[in-house]
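Aim 2, interim progress. The first record below pairs a target sequence with its structure tokens.
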Amino acid sequence: MEVPEVNEVEALLERLGEDELIGRVKSFVRMNEGLEAKRGEDFIAVSILGFLEGILTVLRERYPEDGEVKALYERVRTRREELDEQFRKPGIPLFEE
């Protein structure tokens, strides 16, 4: 399964010297490999993007002046929200007019 943002986050982590987090990202992605057949690719992508969003949230606090961190966080958050919408149950209209 290919989530392009994974490579971008890994490159950012490498630039920032956050080698321990690179290992965690790789481990999380590896753990989710193979689940596409059971859960679907979009579901796994939402999971991975949510994990990346969490890491980028931490990085925003550690590196508040880094524009690349902020920009990547916004892209990942936006994409996760867009995919996440597919899994929300539609509201049940209680009253019809």
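The second target in this work package is listed in the same format:
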Amino acid sequence: MKETAKQAQKLEKTLNWLMGVSIALMGISSTIMSIAGLAGFALPPVLLRVLGIVNLLSLPVLVYSTVKKLLASREAAKQPVKTAATNGVKKPKKKKKKK
């Protein structure tokens, strides 16, 4: 049980990192291209292609990590919640009625 919790935490940390990096890369490349377009600068075609490829490669990573996080949160919602009242406390036995 503890091993799966550690694995789940490691997976969540990795997914958070992947999402952050992909969002940052997409934001940086999109900002560079949009500022250059608004300012009227002509970026070299090689730079435009590199920035476009960065956007195209980071988009599937973002989609993958988002879907994995969504599925993990749905699985976590299905599991029963342990509270102090139910965690390790045995239910009292019912007494048999005498006739």
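Residues 2-77 form one domain. This observation will shape the mutagenesis plan for the next reporting period.
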